[in-house]
């Protein structure tokens, strides 16, 4: 019984939250890694692309809700998602036309692209706040729980509750579907192969008749889609506030770099590594230890780091990986 | 040139003769930030008292009172200090109703009000640290210290038969002051605090904090936070994971937003906030309703009283100079004298003009003790059926 209690406690406080968070980070990191692999720069505006994509989706969600349309047990935001992605893609393509293309034509160094993306980040930052304000928004509707903590406790007779939110299941399901679609696209379709060829060697790709502008456009559209999906899932699961998306940039980059920048599989693995470390390192293990070893009653909480230092975990992982394996766990392009 | 000099001299003479002036009072609240939903009602409360005095025409030979607002943001001491600096040096206010949150109030008092010799009466800064701060007699508050709230909260919890609690507080002077005074009082009365840990405001998700609290355990969770900020986030996380079912809410959490956010999910939880009962409060709520705002909003009545105290003290001292009228504040607030309720400020000014004594009771039964802070009456509330109910006063 005690072992079951310990298991449920770990599931409830570590495995479930970390899995959902990891899936959100993985989607964000995929966008970053894709841009790095094909356009060859670190896109600092990715966090704010997520924010503005989510903001647009929230506006569409409100519009649908005002028409009385809902998605049954699923959040209405899922219906608004395609509209949000389309609008964000248009915005991102316009940014590329206005900012990045100029430097691409000049064949500017990657660091110049990075600095330009910092500028774009600030502009998007302001745009998001103009569009929807700085306040916290909750836009999840539909069924909140798949498993309710109180009901689980009554049903199982355990002293620990298990809660599984609808948005957590949704996050993982959507993430798996998106990742599968992305890999299928990159490996099986002509356009996907063109993108990989362009990523491997730009000049050779040009010689074999690949239209570079088309590849760039496709990349931006896919990145915008990934950013919006990641942002909406994160906002549904937690809450939407523009500033938090800006802060997400750090764990997302940590995830992409840990996995190896430019390597999609690495981005996914990196997302889960960062998420699980953040949660496990800041989780106090006293209760679990109490179940497993009832005779041993530690005085402290058995917590490695206070929850205030959650962000520090991403930093530490980032530094360790950069020191010992600069290309990341899955051999991305060197940073 | 001669004409100009003459005109200047004449106008100087004129103003001197009348004796009436335009008195500016600062209203220094967190109009943005974690308590932004409370500020508008507080501002209207303070302005109500100013308008009442101004319209009566009986303050210092018919002086008028004008309110000037400044935004403290509640959490950013630098922004609060800059706002106070502006009110005093650029606008020339003679007194300040504010600050709103404890940390920001300590910063503005030490850095601006004290060096400039300006009276501050805060309606809502409740940190125990403000009781012992060096203030040259310039700082007062119409709310009680949290040292007292800590004791009241400990009593309420123990009376409900709960003797182990976990405590989480917002990571600032208010939260820490309240949590520490509560933990001390609770331990002294025989209860056990399993953990006393901070949470930061403005995070998207508090599952990590909730996990830590759940691991420490306890029959109830005391949330010494802000309802528009992390406080609600913690409650959301605790409800979602089933970590706690019963919550105890001190003053920063009591608000309509709590009911709107959680409804019936927090049934069985309870809390308290400083609020007096009685005729003064009822009168104030009726006056507020007439003026078009909610007088029962947190600290709105305290704001009215803070503004009224400053103005009556000016009348009593016969001067709008803060260094003169600061000594009259305690006289006005306490016995002896005729009791003054909201809406009777004109009457109070008349009594003062005749040389009589007033005992300002106001909307919150003002009784200033010790270093110039309210003795403290708390309203006990509980939640059932998705509604907040007032249980009683203590």
From TrEMBL, chain A:
Chain ranges passing through the membrane: 20-39, 51-71, 77-99, 111-132, 162-186, 215-236, 305-324
Protein's name in the database: Branched-chain amino acid ABC transporter permease
GO CC terms: plasma membrane
UniProt keywords, alphabetically: Amino-acid transport, Cell inner membrane, Cell membrane, Membrane, Transmembrane, Transmembrane helix, Transport
Record-level GO BP terms: D-alanine transmembrane transport; L-alanine transport; L-isoleucine import across plasma membrane
Family to which this protein belongs: Belongs to the binding-protein-dependent transport system permease family. LivHM subfamily.
Domain of life where this protein originates: Bacteria
Membrane topology: Multi-pass membrane protein
Primary residence: membrane
Species this chain originates from: Paracoccus siganidrum
InterPro entries in the record: ABC_transp_permease, BCAA_transport_permease
Lineage of the organism: Bacteria, Pseudomonadati, Pseudomonadota, Alphaproteobacteria, Rhodobacterales
Cross-referenced CDD domains: TM_PBP1_LivH_like (cd06582)
From TrEMBL, chain B:
Family assignment from sequence similarity: Belongs to the leucine-binding protein family.
GO BP term (any one): amino acid transport
Pfam families on file: Peripla_BP_6 (PF13458)
Signal peptide: 1-20
This protein's name: Branched-chain amino acid ABC transporter substrate-binding protein
Classification of source organism: Bacteria, Pseudomonadati, Pseudomonadota, Alphaproteobacteria, Rhodobacterales
Superkingdom classification of source: Bacteria
Domain Leucine-binding protein: 22-322
């Amino acid at each position: 019984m005690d072992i079951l209690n310990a298991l449920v406690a770990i599931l409830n406080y570590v495995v479930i939250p970390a899995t959902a968070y990891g899936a959100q980070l993985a989607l964000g990191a995929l966008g970053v890694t894709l841009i790095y692999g094909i356009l060859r720069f670190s896109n600092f505006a990715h966090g704010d692309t997520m924010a503005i994509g989510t903001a647009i989706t929230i506006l569409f969600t409100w519009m649908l809700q005002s028409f009385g349309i809902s998605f049954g047990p699923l959040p209405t935001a899922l219906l608004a998602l395609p509209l949000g992605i389309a609008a964000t893609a248009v915005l991102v393509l316009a940014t590329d036309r206005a900012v990045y293309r100029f430097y691409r034509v000049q064949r500017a160094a990657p660091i110049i692209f990075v600095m330009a993306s910092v500028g774009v980040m600030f502009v998007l930052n302001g745009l998001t706040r103009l569009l929807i304000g700085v306040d916290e928004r909750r836009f999840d509707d539909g069924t909140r729980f798949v498993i309710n903590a109180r009901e689980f406790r009554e049903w199982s007779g355990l002293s620990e509750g298990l809660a599984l939110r609808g948005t957590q299941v949704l996050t993982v399901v959507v993430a798996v579907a998106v990742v599968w679609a992305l890999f299928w696209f990159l490996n099986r379709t002509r356009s996907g192969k063109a993108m990989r060829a362009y990523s491997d060697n730009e000049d050779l790709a040009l010689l074999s008749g690949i239209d570079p502008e088309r590849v760039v456009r496709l990349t931006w559209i896919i990145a915008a889609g990934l950013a919006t999906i990641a942002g909406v899932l994160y906002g549904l699961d937690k809450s939407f506030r523009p500033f938090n998306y800006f802060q997400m940039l750090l764990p997302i980059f940590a995830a992409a770099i840990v996995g190896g920048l430019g390597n999609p599989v690495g981005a996914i693995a990196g997302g889960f590594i960062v998420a699980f470390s953040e949660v496990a390192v800041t989780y106090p293990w006293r209760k679990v230890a109490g179940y497993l070893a009832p005779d041993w009653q530690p005085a402290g909480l058995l917590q490695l780091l206070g929850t205030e230092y959650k962000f520090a975990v991403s930093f530490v992982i980032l530094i360790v990986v950069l020191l010992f394996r600069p290309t990341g766990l899955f051999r991305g392009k060197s940073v | 040139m001669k004409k100009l000099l003459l005109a200047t001299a004449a106008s100087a003479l004129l103003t001197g003769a009348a004796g009436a002036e335009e008195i500016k009072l600062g209203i220094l609240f967190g109009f943005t930030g974690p308590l932004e939903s409370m500020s508008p009602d507080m501002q209207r409360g303070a302005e109500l008292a100013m308008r009442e005095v101004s319209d009566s025409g009986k303050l210092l030979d018919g002086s008028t009172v004008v309110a000037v607002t400044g935004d403290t943001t509640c959490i950013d001491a630098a922004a609060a200090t800059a706002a106070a600096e502006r009110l005093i040096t650029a606008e020339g206010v003679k007194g300040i109703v504010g600050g709103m949150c404890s940390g920001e109030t300590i910063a503005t008092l030490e850095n601006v009000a004290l060096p400039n010799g300006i009276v501050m009466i805060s309606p809502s800064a409740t940190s125990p640290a403000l009781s012992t701060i060096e203030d040259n007699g310039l700082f007062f508050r119409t709310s009680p210290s949290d040292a007292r709230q800590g004791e009241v909260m400990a009593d309420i919890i123990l009376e409900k038969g709960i003797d182990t609690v976990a405590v989480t507080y917002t990571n600032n002077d208010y939260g820490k002051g309240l949590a520490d005074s509560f933990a001390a009082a609770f331990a002294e009365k025989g209860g056990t605090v399993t953990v006393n840990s901070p949470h930061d405001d403005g995070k998207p998700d508090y599952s990590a904090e909730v996990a830590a609290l759940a691991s420490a355990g306890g029959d109830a969770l005391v949330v010494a936070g802000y309802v528009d900020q992390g406080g609600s986030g913690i409650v959301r996380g605790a409800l979602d994971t089933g970590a706690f079912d019963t919550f105890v809410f001190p003053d920063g959490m009591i608000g309509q937003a709590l009911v709107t956010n959680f409804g019936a999910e927090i049934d069985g939880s309870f809390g308290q906030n400083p609020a007096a009962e009685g005729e003064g409060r009822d009168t104030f709520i009726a006056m507020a309703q007439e003026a078009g705002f909610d007088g029962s909003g947190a600290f709105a009545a305290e704001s009215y009283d803070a503004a009224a105290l400053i103005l009556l003290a000016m009348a009593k001292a016969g001067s709008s100079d803060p260094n003169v009228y600061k000594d009259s504040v305690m006289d006005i607030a306490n016995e002896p004298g005729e009791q003054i309720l909201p809406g009777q400020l004109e009457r109070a000014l008349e009594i003062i003009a005749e040389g009589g004594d007033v005992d300002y009771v106001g909307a919150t039964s003002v009784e200033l003790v010790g270093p110039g802070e309210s003795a403290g009456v708390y309203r006990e509330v509980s939640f059932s059926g998705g509604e907040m109910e007032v249980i009683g006063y203590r």
